[in-house]
Amino acid sequence: MAWTSVVQIVICVALLIWSLKYSVLPGIAVLVLMSPVQTAITKRLFALRKKSMVWTDKRNKAVNEVVGGIRVVKQFAWEQPYSERIAELRKKEMAFHRVRLYLRSLNLALAFATPTIATVLSFVTYALVGNELDAAVLFSSLSFFTLLRTPLQFLPIAWNAVVDAKNAADRIEKVFDAEIQRDQIVRDPNADNAVQLQDASFTWETAPSADTAETVAMLDALNLTIPRGAL
After folding, report:
1. pLDDT by residue (tens digit) across 190-229?
2. Residues 94-103, mean pLDDT to the nearest whole number
3. In Å, how far from its chain's centre is CA 157?
4. Does the structural domain 1-177 have CATH classification 3.30.160.20?
5. I want to staple 115 with a disulfide (CB 3.0 to 4.6 A). Which of 35, 149, 159, 178 is the partner?
6. Are 131 and 23 in contact (CB under 8 A)?
7. Where are the domains of the chain?
8. Integer Cα distance of 26 and 31 in angstroms
9. Contact yes or no for 223/210 (Cβ under 8 A)
10. Bridge partners, residue 202, by sequence
11. Which residues share a beta bridge with 227?
12. b or e along 72-86 (b: 16 or more beta carbons within 10 Å of the residue's beta carbon)?
């Protein structure tokens, strides 16, 4: 879609130059000036997308933790602290999404308005230089400007899709390039016991909203031996 839009824009501009001669230059100037503006907006969208994904990952991780340990959350009545934590992460994520949507809307508005502005400037210039407002020339040129509207509208949409695809590809690339984690569990086939605990202590952390961060001992000095094949 992106490359076909570029080809269509080039062809329409060439036909406009043939139809309106040098009077089309102000309109082309508008198109040229809007191009770097839209490019800058696209780059900003790319940067905001990368920043928002950091908070998206944190929010998804928090939600997965709650869903995975929902029984513990319900048992200790941690719904409110976790809800506030997820809401705060979502708020930070939405701050970036809100700016992205504003910029995307601005980009689309420029794409819609640029052909109309270029048309008006070109026709005004064509009349001011003393040319006769011939219906054949005006309507054919208007058709070319109308044909410009579609590629100029789809070009920022295509660039937005490219931005999202680039971010997704970068994230997948990091996963594919990551080192394979080897199995850290040591298995001894000659061991007599399947499970053996000696003077073991198990603790449970306090709720995230608790005033103190100290841990509470749940099990202490635990000795347990389970022979192989006994379970």
Report:
1. 777 878 888 888 776 655 554 555 545 577 778 888 887 7
2. 91
3. 14
4. no
5. 149
6. yes
7. 1-177, 193-227
8. 9
9. no
10. 219
11. 193
12. ebeeeebeeebeebb
